[in-house]
What does this fold into?
Amino acid sequence: MTDQKEAFDMAARYLSDKESGESASPAGGTRRFLDRWTSNKNNEPVESTLPIGSPKEAVLLLRNFESSGRGWFWSTDANGNINYLSMPVLTLLNMAPADVLGQPFLSLFHGASEHEENQRTLPFILTKQSRFDDLPLQAATDDEEVWWSVSGKPYRDGAGNFAGFRGSGTDITKLRRSAKDNSKLATYDSLTGLLNRFRMSKLLETTLSAFKLQKRACAVMLIDLDRFKQVNDTLGHPAGDALLKQVAERLVKAVGDREKISRLGGDEFQIILQDVEDRGVLGEMADRIIRMLSHPYSVDGSRCIIGASIGIAVSPFDGQASEDLIRNADLALYAAKGGGRGRFRFYSSDLLQAAEDRRILEEDLRDALSKGQMWLAYQPVVDSASNMVTGFEALLRWNHPERGPISPALFIPIAEEANLIGSLGEWALEKACEEAVKWPGKMKVAVNVSPNQFANTALPKIIESALATSGLAPSRLELEITEGVFLQESADTDSMFKALKKIGVRLALDDFGTGYSSLGYLKTAPFDKIKIDQSFVKGATEPGSRNGAIIAAIVALAEALDMETTAEGIESLDQLALVRSLRVSHVQGYVYSQPVSNEVLLERCIAGDWTIEPSGPAVQRSDRLSMYRKIGAIHDNHRYEVVLRNLSVSGALIEGIYNVPLGTNFVLDFGDGQLAVSTVVRTMESQQGLVFEERLVNDGNGGLCTNRRISPYMMAAAGMPLACLPPGYYMTTEGEQRPSGLPAFSTVSDWKPS
It folds into this structure.
């Protein structure tokens, strides 16, 4: 092959000599052409290697090779301008010889001055008059992408002066495409086109390594699709693959940069967000992603609805090494899924303990029914016009023998994941019917039915049995069903609705507006009531809120379909006034009553009815989370241990410091680098009410957190006293001895005294 290439070089030289007017006699190009073929690598004459035929035949062979498309030849003058170029190249470039002759050789290529790593550029080579071999260059074509491997070497005239270059080229487009495809397969997911696990891992490692030196933040989101397995099981893996492609495109739209997203495998995705540490921003993005991924999909004519859960960790606060950051984001994702799915969680140092607590609670929950630890509380449902109680919603409660009351927000997701929700739901239904039949009058009882219960074909028989055993009239039983039952609409769904209505029970659509279905099911699903989720009520009275318009639209829809409406979560008088003005027929919330036991209910309804006068704050105020938690309160050069009694987005109530003047400034340390600047606005002996300088944000789990965290390095650099720094860190000053090269402040792990 090497001899053939050298022969082509000699042929090109012969043509160049001929076209430049040099003699074709043995003293000219032909002689050199023949001489090349009459010597071996040691430059010794070898008569047997002489080519057969005349120089004219060599030219014909050259032309034949050029026309085959396997390669082409070129030559330039001393100024780098073309004086010979094979006709196939002219055809490819859609040019005539007159368009090319005399033009710079560089004009044949796109970005000839650009080069890959460690690759010299063509202009540099031509300037240095250096030989080059197999230089990859892109042809200056307007349509398709064409790549050439170009070789060349300088030649000189009779006087020894540089006269130009001669060389050859071959098409390597297919090889380049193949290499590009192989590279893409190695770094990109073949199904979605996103980065694959390997490429994302490398990207995260290099990012964290660079950001550690630059003291920059990097956030990682891990996303797991909810209910994706059901799509695979019911519609098949091809449908699942098509769905994953649509998910990938929605993620790209939400994030805005495909190169920051990877598919780790299955239905797991990862996002890297450089220089983002604001948890308000991260929470908003996570919420947006969850909403976008939860909208319905169309796959091969079938309608699919899935959800998403997200775990978030931020470097350097949650880990500086990639494996630590991924592990902690995974813990946050597990907590998000455990919290009920369809939500996000930030990593916090207590998640490991929370995971263990959850495991213990699950074990205890399995025995809670048999040990008589479960009971029902009832929250009144009130006619908004008359203030008269028309019914009650049955709410499941768990009284743990050691931990006391356990929040339903904690144990219901555990029950769903542990497949206990069916037995708990059946018990709640039977117990509610048993107790409601003893209520005076015709007040109704509403019982929640989970999507898992609704999918159970035995549900109608279970309801009939509960009604028959208790003697409760079917018309007094109301089943609250969420939009989750429509995630996989089928003939079975319609059959279940018909069977329930045949029994004679009432049906209410619960948490309307928070689900992921269209309004189409309202045409056929025989609901008697729409319950407006409290998320639309909260903030509805604030200036600029659109929630009032949404509530009005829901009411108009319900009235058109001859349905009642109930607004949930009403806590203030201004909220009540709003929903009344919007013609909401029923109200449920603390403005009338908290949930009560069956015993209290019977006492209040002893006369046969119960009318409640609304009471509560005049205007809506920020949610306050009651708690008993130790935190730090920093003032000047002192750090105090105090107890946090309640918390809202705008302020807190602390306990543990006496005689604090109004206007005193504190920095509250919630841990994990969460510092909130606050001012005392109310003081009562050992308790102080504080207002925050910057509002807190949703932590994705019904709690609150600061939108930014402060690195201990930054605290120390700002001059915060050693006693006020979080545990595990220390600071040295200029007057103290420290190892050479150690910064003025560092983590304990950086240095230990000898």
DSSP finds 23 helices and 32 strands in the chain. The longest strand covers residues 389-400. The chain has four domains: 2-171, 188-349, 374-604, 625-748. The CA atoms of residues 384 and 586 lie 5 Å apart.
